[in-house]
Amino acid sequence: MHDKIWNKILAWYKKHYTLNLGIASFLFVWQLVHLYWLTTHVVFYRLFGVDLFSPKDITQAFIIIADYTEIPALLSTSLIYIYGLTKKFSWKNIWFIIFINSQWLHLFWITDEFIIQQFANTSVSILPFWLAWVAIFIDYLELPVIYDTLKKFFGSLRRK
């Protein structure tokens, strides 16, 4: 029974692979907005004392929207690499699944607010300071996956 359902899901996913890649790529590219903010507003300020980008109003709303697309981006992109594993084993797929899903730690435990508070020293936290840098590193693990997802998407479009 479960095999039949799984095979139907895989068949549907294969049939609509390019669409699924497009949706995952679109959602994941939004994360570049967040990474830009993180780099220019948080990291650069902490390392060099210079705030290169301090968003206001509509720009801040845009960044918040980008943050909210992260959960569907993580789910849809994970499916790409899980699907790839059903076709052929690949360590790259395993590593990218780990990179993608390490984001859950960042989302639900090490939030952006924690990072900003740690770097600004505005509050006392039970979490250590170095954990803010770990959270930032976890965010940057999205970059190779974003690149690879886009590469897969445009490759799939060319083949069609």
Describe this structure in words.
The protein has 160 residues and is mostly helical. It has one domain (2-159). It is 81% helix and 0% strand. It has 10 helices and no strands. It has helices spanning 2-15, 17-29, 31-48, 57-68, 70-87, 91-101, 103-108, 112-120, 130-140, 142-159. Helix 2 (17-29) runs antiparallel to helix 10, helix 3 packs across helix 4 and helix 5 runs antiparallel to helix 6. The mean pLDDT is 85.
Keyphrases for this structure?
elongated; mainly alpha; about 160 residues; about 0% strand; about 80% helix; single chain
Q: Give the strand tally.
A: 0
Look at the helices and sheets and give the structural class: mainly alpha
Q: What proportion of the residues form beta strands (DSSP E)?
A: under 5%
Summed up, the domain count is 1
Number of helical segments with 4 or more residues: 10
Low-confidence stretches: none
Main sheet record? none
Radius of gyration in whole Å, from Cα?
18 Å
The N- to C-terminal Cα distance equals 33 Å
- Rounded mean pLDDT is 85
Helix content: over 70%
